[in-house]
Amino acid sequence: MDYHENILAAVGKTPLVRLGRISEGEGIEALLLAKAEFMNPGGSVKDRPAVKMIEDAEKRGLLRPGGTIVEPTSGNTGVGLAIAAAIKGYRCVFTMPDKVSPEKRDLLRALGAEVVVAPTAVPPDDPESYYSVSDRLAEEIPGGYKPDQYSNPANPLSHYETTGPEIWEQTAGRITHFVCGMGTCGTIVGVGRYLKERNPEVRVIGADPEGSIFSDPENVHPYLVEGVGEDFYPQTLDMSVVDDVVQVTDRESFLMTRRLMNEEGIFVGGSGGMAAVAAIRVAKDLPAEAVVVTLFPDSGRGYVTKVFNDEWLEREAGISREELKRPYRVFE
Ligand code: PMP
């Protein structure tokens, strides 16, 4: 028999997939690969830190039987936490900004969590922000514990212990470039740190939405891609691991998200499209021996009324139906 003891043991060991048609279309000679993190049980890369943060809190006595997990999350971390909480018997309360798609909110409620919605357009230290509201709730609720993926070392550690070693093994140590979106930065810091320890020559490159602080701190403004970019520097970010940051616009991210489905049959959210654009830019002038790995954080299922809806795309991102009919190329 070959089975997992429970669903949490099925987190990780995701496939690495070649982006062959896109490589051909863009004239890329390097090997371009994507880590399919949307294939985790909860549908995203965030299953890994969610499980690690809970197990770490249990070990340190911060989370006790019957406790409540309170976390500000745009959805994916919430799914991972809710799955772990269901097995382990915790209550979950999540706060999120109002820009998050209704499907994501409904999904978390379906998984048994309580969801508190807060305004997007206020600074993080405003008492109304979803960060501040989560702090207050974690204090007020008896047995409340806030994992805080933005400061919790267990977040990058989960990637250092699992995602990084998997990529190293799957590429037989031949990876030369890792290109990855930055949100809490748990993924890029954990994977990047592991890969650089194995081979200091590996380049670690962040992908960041236009409007986010990582690529342009002087021009922080709202953008449409979800789950990546920030308007503050998370404590989990260690810039010594990041060699470069590539800025990607909403338009580029969304056109690439649609193209990944159309050409590769890979159905991911906008942050996957964004990472792919950055990876293509990095891979473009590299020789055939180069091995560029990017990472697709979540599935397109959470965005069927957004990036996968032509009307929404035209209204919000100014991408016309005519434009969608033409094949999109990063390099024309
Ligand atoms: N993409 C999506 C859809 C996400 O939910 C997240 C997590 N915020 C990321 C990318 C970025 O991952 P990380 O937090 O590890 O930087």
Automatic annotation (TrEMBL):
Gene3D superfamilies: 3.40.50.1100. Residues 9-298 form the Tryptophan synthase beta chain-like PALP domain. It comes from the Bacteria. Coiled coil: none annotated. The keyword Transmembrane helix does not apply. The keyword Iron does not apply. Keywords: Pyridoxal phosphate. Pfam families: PALP (PF00291). One of its GO terms (biological process) is cysteine biosynthetic process from serine. GO terms for molecular function: transferase activity, transferring alkyl or aryl (other than methyl) groups. Its cofactor is pyridoxal 5'-phosphate. InterPro entries: Cys_Synth/Cystath_Beta-Synth (IPR050214), P-phosphate_BS (IPR001216), TrpB-like_PALP (IPR001926), TrpB-like_PALP_sf (IPR036052). Belongs to the cysteine synthase/cystathionine beta-synthase family. This is Pyridoxal-phosphate dependent enzyme. It comes from Rubrobacter taiwanensis.
